[in-house]
Known about the structure:
Strands 5-4-6-9-14-13-12-11-10 form a nine-stranded antiparallel β-sheet, sandwiched between helices. Strands 1-2-3 form a three-stranded antiparallel β-sheet. It has helices at about 1-25, 75-80, 80-90, 130-145, 225-240; strands spanning about 30, 35-40, 45, 55-60, 70-75, 95-100, 105-110, 110, 115-125, 155-160, 165-170, 180-185, 190-200, 200-210. Helix 1 (about 1-25) packs parallel to helix 3. By secondary structure, it is of the alpha+beta class. It starts with a helix and ends in an 11-residue tail after the last helix. A hairpin with a 4-residue loop joins strand 10 and strand 11.
Amino acid sequence: MHRIWKATVLALLAATSSISIALCEEAIKRAPDGRYLVDLNGVIVALPEEDPKDRQTGFYISTPPGRSPIHFYLDDLLHDPERLALRLRSSEWSSVSVGSSSDHPREIIGITVARGVNRVGILVGVDKNCESWLAGWSRLRAAAVDLAPDQYGWTRQEFSKSTGETMFIRFLDEGDRRTGRYYAVHCAFNGGCSTRACRNGLTAWIAFYSSDKPRGEDYSVREFDEQIASGKSVLERLLVDRSVDLSHP
């Protein structure tokens, strides 16, 4: 009887596993190189498999006002593809971010990254946070027009003295500062920095560690350009058939 029960349980588990795999394959396609193709509101991202014990790929889905966004990982999506894949395709906004692991601190989704780059992400849909920051970026850009750049081409402003936040701006065309495009990097007192841009319903961002500010180190501005280029290469690997522009108008 015990053997019969055990065989029945194994058969049920195998059947359940086969159904889960079939549902996953139906809801989430795979690229020729094996990466999962996930639809975020019409924008396709390609994600490699990862160790469930070292989850580096996270998703957020919008919820009605007053409720926290739904958060889950890639392995959660693969175990419940019908429900979660549908939410990713149909919510007001959906986002995914990928990061480095403790075992591979200089690698994100198989791409070697510059020192300090630890996470990148995209949000598709209505990004009210990013939209609310546009006016602030514009004011900081206007204030930077008459500032002298450092030897690496970046201008610096103390964004918030009370919190130790600093904003760096780099004009991509020094001959056209008033109307040309620019990069904006926001750094916090803990040494963490980020750059992001939102346009046409797509927000892209890069997070990187720059210095040990609590111990008195200054930001490693000389590394900003390499870190942005490195994070951009990960974003372009993540996005299918889309280019990435992190500059502001």
